[in-house]
Write a structure and sequence with these properties.
This protein is of the alpha/beta class. The chain has five helices and four strands.
Length: 152
């Protein structure tokens, strides 16, 4: 799995050095998958937790654009924690696919550590917390989506 993506059991742990740099500004946001019962609720959670800009369009493309940009949220590193990630959009497989694909593309975008034109890019770390029994299935689901994003 990608080094910037962590699927952990509820109340699990991720080593601090994977989340926070030694120096610099870090913006951390916590979202609750139990509150993401439909797409509007997903967008609201992201809007509130990440302080999305006013131009956010309340659709998947707009969420993807915001997550892949992040310049409107000044920080050297961004940590996004989704608690109860296995409860996001219950019964909406296409919505789950859209959300997790947005997150994976953003994570891959911000994992680039080169310095194009002399500008060092920030980092995005995704932590998805879920019921212990859901760790393996969610991890496999994400691996599948990650493979899709590599080929597109």
């Amino acid at each position: 799995m990608a080094p910037w993506l962590h699927v952990v059991p509820q109340h699990g742990a991720v080593p601090v050095d994977l989340l926070f740099p030694v120096t610099g500004r870090t913006y951390a946001a916590r979202l609750d998958g139990r509150e993401m019962r439909d797409t509007d609720a997903v967008f609201l959670q992201f809007y509130d937790a990440l302080r999305l800009p006013d131009w956010f369009g309340w659709n998947w493309n707009a969420l993807s654009d915001c997550l892949r940009d992040l310049h409107w949220l000044p920080a050297d590193r961004h940590v996004l924690v989704i608690e109860a990630a296995d409860e996001v959009l219950p019964g909406d497989a296409s919505g789950q696919h859209a959300l997790f694909t947005c997150l994976l593309r953003a994570g891959r975008r911000w994992s680039y550590t080169g310095k194009p034109e002399g500008i060092e890019l920030g980092r995005l770390v995704l932590v998805l917390s879920c019921d212990p029994a859901s760790v393996a299935p969610l991890t496999e689901q994400l691996r599948s989506y990650l493979a899709e994003t590599r080929s597109s």
